[in-house]
Amino acid sequence: MKSSVIHKFNRAVNTYDVWSDVQIFAMQKVCERLPAYQPAYVLEIGCGTGQLSSHLVKQYPSSRFLLIDAAPNMVFHCSKKLGPCQNVSFEIMDAEFIQETALFDLIVSSMTMHWFSAPQETLQRLKKALRPGGVFVFAALGSSSLREWREAGLACGVDLGIRDFLSQQLLEENLPGIDLQVHTLRQRYDDSWHFLSTLKNIGGTAAREGHYPVSTIDLKKVMHTLDHQHHQGVFITYELLSGLWRKPL
To answer: How confident is the model at residue 210 (pLDDT cuts 50, 70, 90)?
Structure first.
């Protein structure tokens, strides 16, 4: 995960919870798929402000937790939200560099994996970090997300630098036997400015690596195009991939 992503999430720490409607939906899908038993050791990737962390700690009171995030401000905020917990440890860590082997009984991630620079390699590391029989539960953005924003950029001949989100094929190839569900959300915004403000306030504006920033003139052109395609607010599609994978014994 590159520094631009970390920087934007650091800045969004105080606004994230208020603007995170899609993220809350994703968290709910993760919670629906959590195992009923008490896992001994749980890793949460991208703990953020602690929305999911709070639920995990309540659901698994006898478990030990390692909650990680690459953004220091998020880790600090999460630790404050949870308060003193003897069974919870925090670490500022990019999950793409995790090196643990057969350590965790449950790995959980909500709305973080689509920020990975090398998702295939990271998935292999996470598989190694699970104990045999361990479970990986996650939700992340799929490749059809932000389709309307992408199309408005193409119509204007402007490369918006939108990241390539996760594909179903990549997940199925790297997590054989995965139980994968696809959810499509059409989120309404008042206009393109409201949409971009939402992305900014949740730290979601980081472009793909190596992309040169879009000029103000080009950005306004794309916003104008998007606004004129929708007459009663702007609708943006989010493809949410919700997965459950169990490591073979």
So the answer is: confident
